[in-house]
Amino acid sequence: MTQHTAQHLQDTTVLTGGVKMPWLGLGVFQVEDGEELVQAVKSAIAHGYRSIDTAAIYQNERGVGQAIAEALAENGLRREELFITSKVWNADLGYEETLAAYEASLERLGLEYLDLYLIHWPVKDKYKEAWRALETLFKAGRVKAVGVSNFQIHHLEDLLKDAEIRPAVNQVELHPYLSQQALRSYCREQGIQIEAWSPLMQGGLLDQPDLQSIAARAGKSVAQVILRWDLQHGIVTIPKSTKELRIQENAALFDFELSDEEMAVIDGLNRDQRVGPDPDNFDF
């Protein structure tokens, strides 16, 4: 059952096109721009994280950019050692609008390129023009990889009918109560890397009895067990935290392994239960 076992915080998956993406990153959804955000990103990088995930709609790209600049200087790192993701918001999903949104994100982040740029949501009748813009950016060498977020199988099938370039990543809500098994299988067949946002269900799984039992046996936290489950299923994961101890704890995943039986127990928790919007019924 175990598909993949990352050995180290900086281990990577190789995306379509050969770009290396860390299995574990820091998400900054709902973290306000400001000192707390800057310190969280700097702390993550100092503790070995190399992947940071933001989005235009989070309105914190400037703070992420400041943190990256300071962290590079303080840790003696090069920009190429980091993997930075952002996303184009729904209001900008036209061809020219998406190109402009990308440049605006780069300006706020203070970067010359992104490692990954995603269409944030599959807005009906709009995402194909946005995808054409992402293909243009990719072909021009302005972005290392392009992908989508919150796309269901039917959105991907529709996109792939006309796409010249296959999405490298599909970032979706994914946790033990929403395991997205059919979507994961489809993306694996298509060579699209699945990435989990809200992997801890915004804390909603920390009291789950089966997860608590597995965590107690492993001498780990429930959060660590869930993130380990992601990794062993070959799922890139980006837990969010602003607390240094939690950022460290979320990365301490490489000194234990879940058994096939434990993986099966967690797989069995699925309820198709979301904490975020349904991509087919999101009021844009």
TrEMBL record:
Keywords per UniProt: NADP, Oxidoreductase
Annotated ranges, domain NADP-dependent oxidoreductase: 24-270
An annotated Gene Ontology molecular function: oxidoreductase activity, acting on the CH-OH group of donors, NAD or NADP as acceptor
Gene3D superfamilies: NADP-dependent oxidoreductase domain (3.20.20.100)
InterPro entries the UniProt entry points to: AKR, AKR5G, Aldo/ket_reductase_CS, NAD(P)_OxRdtase_dom_sf, NADP_OxRdtase_dom
Matching Pfam families: Aldo_ket_red (PF00248)
Domain of life: Bacteria
Coiled-coil annotated spans: none
Site (Lowers pKa of active site Tyr): K87
Positions annotated as active site in the UniProt record: Y58 (proton donor)
Keyword Ubl conjugation tagged: no
SUPFAM superfamilies found in the cross-reference section: NAD(P)-linked oxidoreductase
Residue numbers binding substrate: H120
Family, similarity comment: Belongs to the aldo/keto reductase family.
Name recorded for this polypeptide: Aldo/keto reductase
Natural source organism: Paenibacillus typhae
